[in-house]
């Protein structure tokens, strides 16, 4: 069937979601039944307690009344044996539940802005990281640097918008804990109130414990998969809490491009707290589900960001493949 550029499963340059996932697989070598990215993760039970501060701007019940949630924390690599001691992407994916039914998902990562303004740029970066050995172990990183240099140079020439994000990312150490990492949703969304008035926003999940990076010398003493065990042991002494913070746009702020930050002085409103309580007893069930950033409750809508719409298709291709017998 002929596909048009308006079809959100195909990018403006003609890459389909299936082709994007093919390229991720070739670069990241996921195991057949794992997510094509964010392969290793663990699922936790949580409770959302709203602040009441956004109630007048949205009809979304899950944001305005207390609700149950599950949260999957992950290492962003496509490799199940990825090294938590190395710098890289960490994810936090939240599912608001109503009697076990998914009503809305938040999917966020430890970037401040996304490193590319279209899916092609992102896939090019995944390929460059694959070459850099970032998809391999701790010891392989230096070895991979040279091999990756040419690929990174090409990506940066084709996607100049990636420079700022990559530079700031390279200046960070790996997070010390899932509990001390800030995760941003990056795309714009829209809150809709009872009268139909629309307010564009972005969300971030801010750790109550503050942001803590790992000391590289201490990192060498940790297991390569230490992050899940770290969170499990923190939860033995009580919940770990994140504040869901909404940043509201002003006219002229770009809503279609997650690679462009909005000024930090835009209003930041706490929508509520997510208290992570314990490992989910139904972990196998939730691991099989998709956390989809476009699954939104009535009262929240997607923005005009084509990358956001494309992600839904890429995630379902990944899920189809990982759930195949
Ligand atoms: C075109 C852009 C993107 C593509 C093609 C892409 C691709 C993927 C794929 C294939 C998966 C595995 C899905 C599954 O099997 O369930 C995934 C998971 C994930 N992605 Fe993306 N991604 C993109 C952008 C982003 C952005 C902008 C963020 C952060 C805001 C992000 C954060 C995550 C997280 C946290 C997960 C793990 C979700 C979970 O735990 O189930 N991704 N991504």
From TrEMBL:
MF terms in GO = catalase activity
Keyword Oxidoreductase in record? yes
EC nos:
1.11.1.-
Q: Domain of life of the organism in this record?
A: Bacteria
Keyword Translocase: yes or no? Answer: no
Q: Where is the Catalase core domain?
A: 1-325
* Keywords from the named record: Heme, Iron, Metal-binding, Oxidoreductase, Peroxidase
Question: What is the uppermost EC class here?
Answer: oxidoreductase
Cofactor(s) annotated in UniProt: heme
PANTHER family the record matches: CATALASE
Explain the purpose of this protein.
Has an organic peroxide-dependent peroxidase activity.
Protein family according to the UniProt entry: Belongs to the catalase family.
Name of the protein this chain belongs to: Catalase-related peroxidase
Q: Which organism is it from?
A: Streptomyces pseudovenezuelae
The major lineage groups are: Bacteria, Bacillati, Actinomycetota, Actinomycetes, Kitasatosporales
